[in-house]
Amino acid sequence: MEICKRPARSQENSRQDKSNYRPISLLCICSKIFEKIVFDNIYKFLLDNSLLTPNQSGFRPGDSTINQLLAITTEIYNTFENRQETRAAFLDISKAFDKVWHPGLIFKLKQNGINGNLLSMIEHYLSNRKQRVVLNGIESPWESILSGVPQGSVLGPLLFLIYINDLTDNISANIKLFADDSSLFIKVSNVEEAHQTLTNDLNSITTWARQWKMKFNPEIAKQAIEVVFSRKYGKTKGVHPPLYFNDIPVARKPLNILA
User: Fold this and answer.
1) Coil vs helix vs strand at 73
2) CA atoms of 240 and 242, how far apart (whole Å)
3) Over the stretch 92-103, which tens digit does the pLDDT of each residue have?
4) Do the bridges between strand 225-229 and strand 251-253 make them parallel or antiparallel, or are there none, so unpaired?
5) Distance between CA atoms of 226 and 87, rounded to whole angstroms?
6) CA 86 to CA 90: how far, in whole Å?
7) Distances (CA, A) of 247 to 35, 124, 208, 222, 224
8) How much is the average pLDDT of 155-170?
9) Strand partners, 185
10) Is the pLDDT of residue 16 over 50?
11) Residue 24 forms beta bridges with which residues?
12) What are the C-alpha distances in Å from 133 to residues 19, 59, 130, 138, 156?
C-alpha cells in the first residue's frame, strides 16, 4: 500500500522539517466500504457494553470539541461560584497514531471481548504494511510499518480510541480526551492537595505511556502547559507549586478572569 505524506500542524518552516509530516494511507473505495461495515459493528458492540470512556470526545458520532469545551467551561464557572480556582494541565501525545504498538492493541482488543475471526482479521489488517515517499518523481525504498494505525482509513481512529481508552484509569482529577489531546483539571479547595493530585495523575500518565510505548511530546517547546483559571487576584490568589511531566517543568500560562 503506497503512502503519501501530509504536513502536521502548521509551524514556522514546517515544509522543510521532515518531522512535521505524517503518513496517509491511500485506500480504494472497496476497502473503505468494508472497513465501514467492520467499524459499525465494533463501535456498536463497544457502546452496547459501555466499554468506551465517556471522557473521550474524539471520533465519536454526536460528540465534538464544542461539547467538551462546554463541559469544561461549566466546571470552571462552578468553581468561580464557590470562590475557588481551577488548575488545569493540557497534554499532547507525540505522533500518536504512528506510535500504536500492535501487540498492545491486539491485547486490548481481546480485553474488550473482540476475538475469533474478527480479531484475526484485524491482526492481518495491521501486518505486512509498507510505506514509501515519492518526491519530485523520485521514490524511496519500501519500508515495513511496525507500529501505528493507518491514517486516512475508517478503522484507524476507532482502533486508536480502543488503544488509548484506559489512559483515564487511575486518574483522580477530572480528565477529558479528544483523540490524542488530553486535559486534566481540578478545583482547588486546598492548593497543596490539588497539586499532589495533579502530580500523582501526571505520574500515572507517564507510567501508562511507558507501558504502552506511547510518548507525550518530548520537546520543551511543545511540552505540557498549565493554566490556572481564577477570578482572584493579589493576595487572595493561590500560590501553586510547579508541576513536572516527563521530568520537564509544565509551562504555566498566566490567565486571570476577573469578570
Assistant:
1) helix
2) 6
3) 888 889 999 999
4) parallel
5) 7
6) 13
7) 40, 38, 15, 14, 11
8) 95
9) 88, 174
10) yes
11) 4
12) 14, 28, 11, 8, 21
Q: By the 8 A CB rule, do 60 and 178 touch?
A: no
- Residue corresponding to grid cell 467492520: 38
The candidate with the shortest Cα–Cα distance to 104, out of 218, 216, 202, 208, is 208
Residue type, 94: S
Q: By three-state DSSP, how is residue 90 classified?
A: strand
Tell me the C-alpha distance between 24 and 21, whole Å: 10
Residue pair 78/141 in contact by the 8 Å Cβ criterion: no
Nine-digit cell at 58? 474524539
DSSP state of 141: P
186, β-bridge pairs: 87
Handedness of CA 133, 139, 143, 149 (dihedral sign): positive
Q: What is the pTM for the complete model shown?
A: 0.86
- Strand duo 181-188 + 3-7: pairing: unpaired
